[in-house]
Specification:
Blueprint: E1 12-16, H1 49-61, E2 66-70, H2 80-86, E3 92-97, H3 106-112, E4 116-120, H4 126-133, H5 138-150, E5 156-162, H6 170-179, E6 183-189, H7 204-214, E7 217-221, E8 226-230, E9 246-250, H8 256-260, E10 264-267, E11 272-274, E12 284-285, H9 291-304, E13 313-315, E14 321-323, H10 325-332
Parallel strand pairs: 1-2, 1-10, 2-3, 3-4, 4-5, 5-6, 6-9
Antiparallel strand pairs: 7-8, 8-9, 10-11, 11-12, 13-14
Helix pairs in contact: 1-2, 1-9, 2-3
The protein binds S-adenosylmethionine (SAM).
S-adenosylmethionine binds next to strand 3 and strand 5.
Keywords: 4Fe-4S, GTP-binding, Iron, Iron-sulfur, Lyase, Metal-binding, Molybdenum cofactor biosynthesis, Nucleotide-binding, S-adenosyl-L-methionine
InterPro entries: Aldolase_TIM, Elp3/MiaA/NifB-like_rSAM, MoaA-like, MoaA_arc, MoaA_NifB_PqqE_Fe-S-bd_CS, MoaA_twitch, MoCo_biosynth_MoaA/MoaC, rSAM
Protein name: Probable GTP 3',8-cyclase
């Protein structure tokens, strides 16, 4: 296993398979690359099936034991089942999707080896949903969630980005997962770092406080610095996360503890290694690389990883976050 200078082992990879998307969510960071709007057809700049598999084989050699496929909308890739099928056995395979293509395809993906799925669902009302995602496909998303459950992907985690537009929908989303077996909710704090619009930020502590009052049980997962709340249901006896009513908050913004516990390397759809979601100044292209070259590039990416908050960004005397002088000098001299 590779460990960076800050003692963080790299145990997972998050691979963007395309930056095409059939939605246009107003908050989307597109895995750190900005706009997802553009043509829907396969693009020449996307990694081929073989490119993705070659990278995953190298990552597996380094002990990486989990991969999450994302995008853009990863289900726009017609070779997704093949990629999953060819992913090294040692890796747990998960997918983040908007859910619209799960009906009719969920079973194929599970048969290929998909183990977990997150479906983005930011609202329970079709009009509210359309306002956030710029898509009218609400019913398809619900069908997608059902299809995932029917295919045996239990629990299905619903991802909801919490920001100015959606904060008011949190209570109904919490009730929704408490009332429906097999669903869990991941509340993701809106990250403005790559999208701008910091005015959309909300005070995530208020969501923590509200959930703490409602919860029958609270768990703090040290590894990711994430809190889990059990609401309306009860935690399974074996301590697993399988019970209904589980709500998790992911709150990375200005959170050095979160960054200190980041164990992931990312890959863009064009095949660039990326050490941090919030940075695009450390990208390394895998292009036409051979496996030995990819090994080297992966080692270098891990070696260059820096916790974003707390190290790359530090707080000044006024409490404002700014780039650590050390890194400004480093890049100026590069
Ligand atoms: N199309 C897929 C989907 O809808 O889940 C995968 C791509 S999407 C970029 C992956 C995840 O990033 C989604 O769960 C989304 O909620 C989250 N996300 C996107 N922009 C975000 C932002 N500005 N702040 C926090 N989370 C964000």
């Amino acid at each position: 296993m590779l460990t960076d200078e800050f003692g963080r082992e790299v145990t997972g990879v998050r691979v963007s398979l395309t930056d095409r998307c059939n939605f246009d969510c107003v908050y989307c960071h597109n895995e750190g690359l900005g706009d997802t709007r553009g043509p829907m057809d396969p693009q020449d700049d996307e990694m081929s099936t073989d490119d993705v598999v070659r990278f995953l084989e190298v990552a597996a050699e380094f002990g990486v034991d989990a991969v999450k496929f994302t995008g853009g909308e990863p289900m726009l890739r017609q070779d997704l089942a093949e990629i999953i099928e060819r992913t090294p056995d040692r890796m747990e395979i998960s997918l983040t999707t908007n859910g619209t293509f799960l009906p009719g395809r969920a079973e194929e993906l599970v048969d290929a080896g998909l183990e977990r799925v997150n479906v983005s669902q930011d609202a329970l009302d079709p009009a509210d949903f359309a306002a956030v995602t710029k898509s009218g496909a609400y019913e398809k998303v619900l069908e997608g969630v059902e299809a995932a459950l029917d295919a045996g992907l239990d629990p299905v985690k619903l991802n909801m980005v919490v920001f100015e537009h959606t904060a008011g929908y949190v209570p109904e989303m919490v009730d929704h997962v408490a009332d429906n077996d097999g669903l869990q909710l991941q509340l993701i704090e809106y990250m403005p770092e790559l999208t701008g619009k910091p005015e959309w930020n909300i005070d995530i502590q208020r969501v923590h406080d509200w959930l703490a009052e409602r919860a029958t049980e609270i768990e703090h997962r040290e590894m990711h610095d994430r809190k889990r709340y059990w609401v309306g249901g009860s935690k399974a006896h074996d301590g697993s996360s399988n019970s209904s009513g589980m709500v998790e908050i992911v709150d990375p913004v200005e959170n050095p503890t979160f960054c200190a516990n980041c164990h992931r390397v990312r890959v863009t759809h064009e095949g660039y290694l990326k050490g941090c979601l919030n940075r695009n100044d450390d990208l390394k292209s895998m292009g036409e690389m051979t496996k030995p070259e990819i090994r080297e590039a992966f080692r270098d990416t891990v070696a260059d990883r820096v916790p974003y908050y707390g190290e790359y960004m530090v707080q000044n005397d006024d409490g404002q976050w700014e780039i650590n002088e050390k890194y400004i000098e480093e890049y100026a001299g590069a």
